[in-house]
Design brief:
By secondary structure, the protein is an alpha/beta fold. Helices cover about 35% and strands about 15% of the residues. The protein starts with a strand and ends in a 9-residue tail after the last helix.
Length: about 350
């Protein structure tokens, strides 16, 4: 939903938004996890937001508020002709960009600017100049041993287009950047290519279990679970996710059910998992376990498996491909498979 900030009281930590049909929505800084997105909002800023359907009040409430980027904004900031922006946007598949008032996600805007300018644009400069969600803690991090490796060739959009079955883990749904990353790189392409996300029973179970605590045990996890539930509600509204029948024996523990599911279907479908359970200090955790499945000698090369995580960097709303280089030299590849014997 598109609207404009009509009032914002940062000292009292609340404000109001009016949408295009003049309906008014209130928002409180502490109501949701996306508080950082609204710290830099000012009166009259144009924003995109979602209505909180679970808000227990007669008044309407808004969530996930962030500034939008319009063609005219890019043209003014970077001295690029508006027609060139529209033409390039449509060439890159952004069919909704039709005139100077059309808007797009941050990632798409960066790609369009890079292409038109014909040179690399520093990400931090983009963050400082475009009217995008930002905060005072924006920074870029160098790749470390615990940071997933970015793929230079493909993005998650390519695997949506190629009809991979894309599963989502609890750990990613509870990430701060998840909703904005979905809006940038997933939701428009699910609609474009008539695809859906897959959320297994155990993910729903883990989220609901945290919500039942009401924050008494762990307030931070409760807020994250609340955010995850909101994201699922957004996806459900447009029929963009389904619950697959995995035939797993345990449907209360997401790691076990996802590994079971990927093991059962890795020879039938190309699979992709979005998970932030990917610590390389622990052999990749769930991400590592899933990737190892495609390298087991008997089924290697039949179908493909990819793993992505949502970026943890503030203001970086994109998915990063996870590649554990140790997997490619594992015993699954270098050693001969064991002989089968009868007992």
């Amino acid at each position: 939903m598109i609207g404009k900030v009509t009032k914002i009281f940062k000292d009292k930590r609340y404000g109001f938004i009016q949408n295009t049909t003049n309906d008014e929505y209130s928002f409180k800084f502490g109501d949701f996890r996306f508080e950082k997105d609204i710290l830099n909002l000012e009166r009259y800023d144009e924003v995109r937001f979602y209505e909180d359907k679970n808000y227990n009040s007669k008044n309407r409430s808004a969530l996930s508020i962030y500034k939008i980027i319009r063609v005219k904004d890019i043209s003014t900031k970077y001295n690029i002709d508006e027609e060139d922006i529209i033409e390039e946007a449509r060439r890159q598949g952004e069919t909704s960009v039709k005139n100077r008032y059309s808007y797009m996600g941050t990632l798409e805007a960066e790609q369009i600017i890079n292409t038109i300018k014909g040179k690399s644009v520093n990400k931090k400069t983009i963050a400082c100049n475009l009217p995008r969600p930002k905060n005072n803690f924006f920074h870029s991090r160098q790749i470390s041993k615990t940071t997933p490796v970015r793929s230079n060739s493909f993005s998650i959009v390519d695997y949506i287009k190629e009809k991979y079955l894309i599963f989502v883990d609890t750990s990613s749904l509870m990430q701060y950047n998840m909703l904005n990353a979905l809006n940038n790189e997933v939701i428009p392409y699910l609609k474009k290519y008539d695809q859906k996300l897959y959320v297994v029973d155990s993910v729903e179970h883990e989220i609901n279990k945290l919500l039942k605590t009401k924050g008494n045990e762990n307030p931070s996890s409760y807020k994250q679970a609340k955010s995850a539930r909101f994201i699922l509600n957004v996806l459900s509204k447009d029929d963009l996710y389904v619950i697959p029948e995995t035939n797993a024996s345990n449907r209360k523990f997401a790691d076990e059910e996802l590994i079971s599911c990927f093991t059962n279907y890795r020879t039938k479908y190309n699979l992709c998992l979005i998970t932030n359970d990917n610590s390389q200090r622990k052999d990749g955790n769930l991400a590592g376990s899933i990737l190892r499945l495609k390298h087991e000698q008997p089924i290697r090369g039949i179908k493909d498996i990819k793993v992505f995580s949502v970026s943890r960097d503030d203001g970086d709303f994109r998915f990063i491909e996870f590649k554990d280089e140790t997997i490619y030299n594992s015993f699954y590849i270098t050693n001969k498979p064991p002989k089968r014997v009868s007992l």
